[in-house]
């Protein structure tokens, strides 16, 4: 089965976003992952609504928006208005996660819940049936180009079990350090969606990289 690929805009060339988004539009990428950072929840500031709105005007792929901000519920309506397909909020940033998930759905978007590397998947036991996607951070959020945290493979297994046992339909998305070495192992571990920033946008042939990320593993590697 093909893997959903969501290249991360954070690694694009901000002096020529049009060229990089043209590449995404031509490519086999399924979604475009947009990292919004506030300098409080994470120690970095990326971009906000003016950039998201401009990107939405020229990008033909659905936007998968990853909010690394405190109290993301303040921006649900605005995110829906810009036309995002999915709003990903951090478990660690939401005091009333149940309400936030329902508000995201009421605004017509898919609801994603993101876990930092140190947050265990069992924290999702009481909301897994309500979410469309769980985004596992495989780096500490805030920066692109970091080293993949190996414990993510085992975490995917624990999350897969939680999803199965609860009868949830949630997809498993992994973000951070996804490249030629980690992607096949993530596929074998059962990931549904791969986010990849530097590996895609710094590649000589980014469209080919996206195609390879989305391809199923050869049968002898899927064992
Ligand atoms: O959420 C993120 C960082 O907080 C980015 O989506 C992620 O880091 C992607 O970058 P790379 O593939 O270069 O690791
Ligand atoms: Co991200």
UniProtKB/TrEMBL annotation:
Pathway: Carbohydrate degradation. Binds 1 divalent metal cation per subunit. It catalyses: D-ribulose 5-phosphate = D-xylulose 5-phosphate. One of its GO terms (biological process) is pentose-phosphate shunt. Its cofactor is a divalent metal cation; Fe(2+); Mn(2+); Zn(2+). Keywords: Carbohydrate metabolism, Cobalt, Isomerase, Manganese, Metal-binding, Zinc. PROSITE patterns: RIBUL_P_3_EPIMER_2. Coiled coil: none annotated. Pfam families: Ribul_P_3_epim. GO terms for molecular function: D-ribulose-phosphate 3-epimerase activity; metal ion binding. Its EC number is 5.1.3.1. Substrate binds at residues 8, 66, 142-145, 175-177, 197-198. The active site is at residues 35, 175. A divalent metal cation binds at residues 33, 35, 66, 175. It comes from the Bacteria. Belongs to the ribulose-phosphate 3-epimerase family. Catalyzes the reversible epimerization of D-ribulose 5-phosphate to D-xylulose 5-phosphate. This is Ribulose-phosphate 3-epimerase. It comes from Hallella mizrahii. The lineage of its organism: Bacteria, Pseudomonadati, Bacteroidota, Bacteroidia, Bacteroidales.
């Amino acid at each position: 089965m093909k893997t959903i690929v969501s290249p991360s805009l954070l690694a694009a060339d901000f002096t020529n976003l049009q060229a990089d988004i043209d590449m995404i539009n031509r490519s086999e990428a399924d979604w475009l992952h947009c990292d919004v950072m506030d300098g409080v929840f994470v120690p970095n500031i990326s971009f906000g609504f003016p950039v998201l709105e401009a990107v939405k005007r020229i990008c033909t792929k659905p936007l998968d928006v990853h909010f690394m901000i405190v109290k993301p519920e303040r921006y649900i309506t605005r995110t829906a208005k810009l036309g995002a397909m999915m709003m990903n909020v951090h478990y660690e940033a939401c005091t009333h996660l149940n309400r936030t998930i329902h508000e995201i759905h009421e605004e017509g978007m898919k609801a994603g819940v993101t876990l930092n590397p140190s947050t265990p998947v069992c924290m999702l036991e009481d909301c897994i049936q309500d979410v469309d996607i769980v985004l596992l951070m495989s780096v500490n959020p805030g920066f692109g180009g970091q080293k993949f945290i190996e414990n993510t493979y085992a975490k995917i297994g624990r999350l897969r079990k939680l999803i199965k046992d609860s009868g949830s339909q949630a997809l498993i998305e992994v973000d951070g350090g996804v490249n030629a070495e980690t992607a096949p192992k993530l596929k074998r571990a059962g990931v549904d969606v791969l986010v990849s920033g530097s590996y895609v946008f710094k590649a000589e042939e980014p469209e080919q990289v996206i195609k390879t990320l989305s391809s199923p593993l050869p049968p002898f590697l899927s064992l």
